[in-house]
Structures are given as C-alpha cells and as structure tokens.
Amino acid sequence: MEAALLKFLDLFRWAFTLMKADYDQLRAIVAIKLTMDNRRQIVSYRRKGNKEPANAFLMTLFFYGIFGGFVAIVIGSVPSLMIAMIVFFSYIMVMIAMTLITDFSAVLLDTSDNTIILPRPVDSRTLFLARSTHILLYLGLLAMSLSIFPCVSVLVRYGALSMIIFIVLIGLSIIAAVSITNIFYLLILQFTSEERLKNVINYFQIIMAVAIMGGYQLVPRLMGRFEAETMLQFNLQWWHVFIPPVWMAAALDTFYSRLYSIEHILFTVCAIVIPLGGFYLMNRYLTPIFSRKLGAMAGGGAGEATVSGAQRRSAWLDRIAPVITAGPLERGSFELIYRILGRDRKIKLKLYPAFGYVLVFAIVFTLRNGEDFTSTWHNLPNTDYHLVLLYLTFMVLQVALYEIPYSDDFKASWIYFSLPLESPGEILSGMLKAILVRLFLPAYLLVSVFVIAVWGIRAVDDVVFGFLNNVIMLQCFALIGNRHLPLSMAPSVRGQSGNFLRGILMFILIGAIGGSHYLITRFQPLVLYGVIPVQLGVIYVLLKTYRRTSWDAIKY
Amino acid sequence: MDSASPIIVVSDLSKSYDNTPVLKNINLSVQPGEIVGYIGPNGAGKSTTIKILTGIIPDFEGDATVLGYDIRKEPLEVKRHIGYIPENAALYDTLTPLEYLHFIGQLYRMDRVLVEDKARELLQLFDLSGYIDSRMTTFSKGMRQKVLLIAGMIHNPAILFLDEPLSGLDANAVILVKEILAQLKRNGKTIFYSSHLMDVVEKISDRIVIINKGEMIANGTFEELRSQAGGSLEHIFTELTGNRQYESAAGEFISILNK
To answer: Does B49 touch chain A (CB under 8 A)?
Structure first.
C-alpha cells in the first residue's frame, strides 16, 4: 500500500512544485512516515497477542465503506438531489473535520522530529506540506471508502457526468476541511499557548467520541420522526451560504438540473473558490506562523529553564482528603489519582466520554417507546425511569475502574515496588475513593438534581439508596476483577477478551440490584430506610476486605 | 589563526520564552578549525544557543552569522553546511540505522549509493555492523548516540554542533569520539559542543565558553581561565557559576535529611 500511495503522490509532483515545495525531500519525509506508521501497527500487534487485528486501519476503511452504503441508499431513495447531497456532504465533511481534529493536530504539531528534521536543509514550507500530505493521504483513503457506494448511487441515478462532478466536489470538500481546520489551529496557536490548544483538542476529542456514539444510537430513532414531505423539496435561502455542505450540493444541482439562479451560481462559486482560496491562503500566509511556532516548541520542550503551568494548590483537596481517607498511604494514593484524573489528557479522553454515554443512554431509554417527545416528557414523573438514570451513572465508575491501571507513564510505578509497602491494598482503596469523589460524585449529583427536579421530593430516598448501591457495585467489581496498582500497566498489554464478559456481568449486576431497588420502591418504600444501614455495613466490610489486599493478589 | 575571518559570529544574541529571558546579549566569535567547549549549569541556555545557531529556533534577537550566512535570512544555506547532534537521542527508532541514514541523506540530496557506502563503513567503525538492518527500538542509548553521530556528519559538514555528544557512551566509544573530534579539527573542521564532562572539555577544547543564567561569564583558552581562577576546569566552573558554597550546601542537605 505504501508504494502505491507514493506512486499516486508522484502524479502530483507538479502541484507541489507549484507550491514551491522541494518534492524529493517531501517525498522522502512522507515515505519515512508511512513506513513508521506501518511498523508501529505491527509492533503493537505483536505485543497484544492476536487480539487486535493488525490492519486496524483497513477495518476502519471497511466500516466507513458500510456507512457509505447507507448514505448511498439515501441518495438512491430521496427524491430531491439537493437534500440527498446535503446529507452526503454534511456527513463526509463532519467525518473529515472530526478526523482532522483528533489526528491531524498530533501530526501537524508533532515536535518529536524537531531535532531530526529542523537542522537539515528542509524549508518550512516543504515540511508543512509533507506533514499535510501525510495526513491527506489517509483522509483521501477514508473519503474514498466513504464515497465508493454513494458514487455508484449517483452514477445510476444521475448519470456519468454527475458522478465526475461529484468526485471533484468530494476532493474540494477535503481541501476545504483541511484548510479551514488548519487556519483554525494556526490562528488559535497565534493567540494562545500550545498547551491550551492541546486542551481544546482534548475536549473536541471527547465530544467527538460522544457524538459518534450518540449519532449511532439516536439518529436512526430521530429519522423516523421526520415528516415525509420535507424530504421532497429544498429551498435555498441566502443564509445557507454559511453551511459548506450546501455549496457542494448546490454546485452539483446547478450542473444536473441546469438551474442558473443567482443562489445556485453563488453557491457553486463558493464551492470552488473557497476551498482553493483557503488552501492558497494557508500555504502563503500561515506556514511562516507554523515554522515559528514549531521552533518555539522545540525550545520549550528541551529542558531549558522555562517552568510554566504552575498548578494551584487545591484547598478543597486538602480539606476532603483527610476526611475520607485513613492513613498516609491511602491519602497519598487518593491525592495522586485525584489529580491525575483531572490532568492527564489521555486518561480524560478515555474516561470523560462515559459521562456523555450516560446522557445518550438516558435519552435512548426515555424515548424508546415511540411516542412524541412532549408527551413522554409530561409522563416522565409517573414512570420509574429515574431509577434507570441513577444506575446508568455506574457506567462512569465501571469504565474508570477498568482504565485506571493503564498509563503511558507506567514505568513510574517502580516507586510502588521499591518502597517498603506492606499493604498495597491501601493504595487500591485510595484509588477507588479518588474515582468515586472525582468522577462519580459530580456525575451523580447532576443526575440527582435532574431526578429530584422532575420526580420531586419522593425521589430523594431513591437517590440516596441508589448512591450506596452504586458504591457497593463498584466495590464488587474491584474485588472480583484483576487487581492492578493504579497507572502501573503499559496500555499495550491490555487484553480485549474480558470485555464482553465484563459487560454482561455489569448488566446482570445492575439489573439485579436496580431490579430489587425497583421492587422495594414499588411495594414497600419504607423498607428502604431499613436497608440503608445494612448497605453502609456492607460498604464498610467490602472496603476493609479491599484494603487488606496483599501483594499476592496484585497482578502486574 | 587570527588571519582568517571568523566562521561563527554572534552579536547581542538574546532569547526569551514567554518573557523569561534565557539568553542575554551573548557575543561570541569562532575561528575556523577551532574546537569550542560550551559549558554551563543546567538551564543556562546552552541548548538554546546551539538550536539558534543551527537554525532550529528562528525567533531570537540580535544577529548570528554562520559561514558568512545570516542565520535568519539564509537558514537553508547554513543548514546545508553544518551538522547537528542533539542531546536527547531523538531519532526514528522504528527504522533500521541504514534506513534512517538513507532518509537523512535524502534530505541533503546526497547520492544514494554514496550514503549507503559511507553508512556501512561508519557503522562498522562504531561496531554496529551486526545491527545494520535491525530496528533501533531495541538499541541502547550508546548505540543510538553512535547512529546520531553518523547522521550528523554523513554529509561532511564544515561545522559540527554537538549537544552532549558523549552522554550514554561507554568508555571505548568516548575515546573514539574524542579522537574523531581531534582528527576532524586537523581536517580543518570547526566544532562547537556543549558538555557536562569537565575533564573532556578541558582536554580537547581550544577555547572554553562558560555561560550561566543566559549570560556569558567566561571566554578563553583553558590557560587563560586558569589564570583567572586557578585549579582544574571543574574548580573554575564552580568558582565562576557562583556555586562556591557547594560544600556547605551538601552539609545542609544532610542536616535536613536528618531532621
């Protein structure tokens, strides 16, 4: 695939020369990057045993192809060309922009090869274009697999000429997305630090993870609610000029339907001029910013004395830590995990989407019986869905418990093994408490406020009861599962096989506990108050047991 | 030697990150064929100076000329004729040494066959011929450093910038590198390097430049420096960088531990 991609790249030699890049150097950089991508995948494949397919990228392409199939059906069945195209171009542009935000920033702002490439006679434009090309090749492949079925659909329904224009427009969409994202990044970089940009990107990534999950769950449900006649006709309005997919759709419509209204021509011009103009602007004016920033990052990261980002001491943490932990060891572990959960971007990226999933599932569960939204909303206080909401929040805990042993800094865990620790269980219990306080408590509080607002004061006992049950479930999982010290395992050694079983177990446990909660509320609400002391006792005993975890029980 | 015009001229060089000054008004000139040892405490600005002179950091105040080219106006010309060996063993370790050197050669537009020949012979000199086609992920720090040394010199640069070139090397390799530097000098190359190893700097440098907190505090031959402060370079260094009380600092360290 590497060789084929480079051959393909050679076709555009003239374009790179036109952009004043040194094509031979650019090709060498792209080639070396592709080789390394390839090897990295193979390396991680070997480490993981045979759990993860080596060609994860090919799998992604395959799934994008299937998604494309659905869009192809839309194109084939929706009467209006405009609407079908708006759906398609929105889809492809969102996918590309999201991929760019999640992956492109890392490639573009990569400082790891500063000391390798910057001292060589490579000008910044060539380097910038080499990095852009590297990611464009991947984007091109993604876009291709996404649009292969839609292309066929357009060919069959609208003819060969339309398909050719369609393909050109896809190319322009990619260029538009790349230029706009790039300009966006470089402008942000101009005004803020790289560190802050990384945080912004981190939150984008989290939102994207939730959006994909949510889209997957919600869009099919919402689709059914559209009135059929809105799909027949699309009226162009002047303000559509702010929506890029509409340009592309209008451009194709102009050629196919031979509509030469002012709007159509204006939008067609936008479709052609804005991507190319954006790319020109980026190449002409923004590469100097890029190279200056890269140099600056090169300096900052190399151990010279610039200490930045001093963290404020948290008075809140100082106050709660002694209250909820016992002993210095547990407190140390608690404070460490508490801070890392709030700072480590990789961990945030893995854990924070769970909050979004809870929201998505909450909506899915409440909307599932096909009624329209307002009547469901009005009926809500008469149902017992609040129990579903309270127990769904457990997902946050479960994901956190599963992820917390893994860290890129796993080597730092030598500290546990070099210290004279008699009871590693205290580290584990500190970790558990940190997860509860830092991640679960805020999420549960939010859900509780919502529940009490909707269901009224009668739900308060459910909230308390549910909270204690969540804690017990967390403890059960911690006790049943493999016990690893926090942040002590390399992410690459994680096995995938237990996932399914763990999921099943979680649903059985939630079902059993949530179910009994439901039965109690339904028939003997007063019993709740009797059970609460029992729960507290159980929590105490389980915590004691967990704290007594010995070295033999720890897996690493 | 003073008849030749200087090959590196730095005047009023200053640099700051986010309003924190890192270099303050550095003035320096280096003659062709000189070995300059550039020393200073951690965070003094050594790496920053080298990164500016090699064109990695384009943003700075003052002027810097290398080989007669203004580093700001013609960075590519400068980069074509210098070699740089970074301190933190940064290289693409999923590649093999030969692949890596091929890549570097391409960036200098060198002939592929020539690169291959040179690479093979140089790797052999460094006892790496058995690893020529193995990925560098498994290499020790010393092995990586050797590959970096070759990568920095494969295009036969006129000036060599080395940032901690001896870190991680075993004793044999240190002797080899020191000898290579000495012979490079005999071939008329200019060498500018930073190091923490005082005895090495003392032995091989024609001139020693000491910076502290971004300011140049000494510049001269070892003899000249000795006439100022006396003793070994280590002694001169601690004397000049203001850490004279290291003995009492160490004592205090112990007494705090005993609390």
So the answer is: no
Cβ of A308 and B106 within 8 Å? Answer: no
Number of domains, chain A: 2
Q: Which residue has the higher pLDDT, A433 or A409?
A: A433
Q: Where does a domain end: A272, A300, A328?
A: A300
Q: How far apart are CA A302 and CA A305, in angstroms?
A: 9
Tell me how many domains chain B contains.
1
User: Could you tell me the residue range of the domain that residue A234 belongs to?
Assistant: 2-300
Q: Residue B143: which pLDDT band, with cuts at 50, 70 and 90?
A: confident
Establish, for the pair of chains A and B, how many residue pairs have beta carbons separated by less than 8 Å: 111
DSSP state of A305: S
The whole-number pLDDT of residue B83 equals 92
Domain-embedded: residue B108: no
**Using the beta-carbon criterion (under 8 Å), do B58 and A119 form an inter-chain contact?**
no
Instruction: For chain A, list residues whose CB is within 8 angstroms of any CB belonging to chain B.
Output: 24-25, 28-29, 32, 35-36, 39-40, 43, 112-123, 193, 291-292, 295-296, 298-300, 302-306, 308
Token digits for B122? 């140089």
Phi/psi of residue B218, nearest 5 degrees: -155, 150
Of B80, B88, B90, the CB nearest to A121: B80
Measured CA to CA, the distance from residue A3 to residue A5 in angstroms comes to 5
Which of B76, B103, B135 is closest, CB to CB, to A121?
A: B76
- With tokens 């896809």, the residue in question is A170
Whether the complex's predicted ipTM surpasses the cut of 0.95: no
Contacts of B64 in chain A (CB under 8 A): none
Interchain contact, A291 vs B22, CB within 8 Å: no
Same domain, A393 and A481: yes
Quote the pTM value. 0.70
Does a structural domain hold residue B134? Answer: no
Q: What is the pLDDT of residue A368?
A: 60
In angstroms, the separation between the Cα of residue A508 and the nearest Cα of chain B is 44
In a domain, B84, yes or no: yes
B91 Cβ under 8 Å from any chain A Cβ: yes
Region of residue B15 (left: phi > 0; alpha: psi -120 to 50; beta: else): beta
Q: How far is B148 from chain A (nearest CA, A)?
A: 9
Q: Which residues of A touch B57 (CB under 8 A)?
A: 295-296, 298-299
Give contacts of A122 with chain B, Cβ < 8 Å: 76, 79, 107
- Phi, psi at A389, each rounded to 5°: -60, -45
Distance from C-alpha of A91 to C-alpha of A94, rounded to nearest angstrom: 5
Q: How far apart are CA A55 and CA A554, in angstroms?
A: 33
Segments forming the whole domain that contains residue B40: 8-90+155-172+182-257
What is the Cα–Cα distance from B13 to B63, expressed in whole angstroms? 6
Average pLDDT over residues A248-261: 84
Beta-bridge mates of residue B29: B9
Helix A23-47 with B97-107: angle, nearest 10 deg: 160
- Measured between CA atoms, the residue of chain B closest to residue A37 is B94
Taking 80 as the threshold, does the pLDDT of residue B80 lie above it? yes
Residue A51 has pLDDT above 60, yes or no: no
pLDDT of the residue at B218: 86
Give the pLDDT of residue A218: 63
pLDDT digits (tens, 9 = 90+) for A480-515: 888 888 888 877 665 545 556 777 777 788 888 888
CB spacing of A40 vs B94 below 8 angstroms: yes
Give whole-number Cα distances, B77 to A363, B66, B72, B80, in Å.
Answer: 62, 9, 11, 5
Residues of A in contact with B241 (CB under 8 A): none
Whole-number CA gyration radius for chain B: 19
pLDDT in tens, A345-385: 778 877 888 888 788 777 777 666 555 667 777 777 777 88
Query: Is residue A162 in some structural domain?
Result: yes
Residues A385 and A484 in one domain: yes
Q: Is residue A309 part of a domain?
A: no
Contact A267, A246 (CB under 8 A): yes
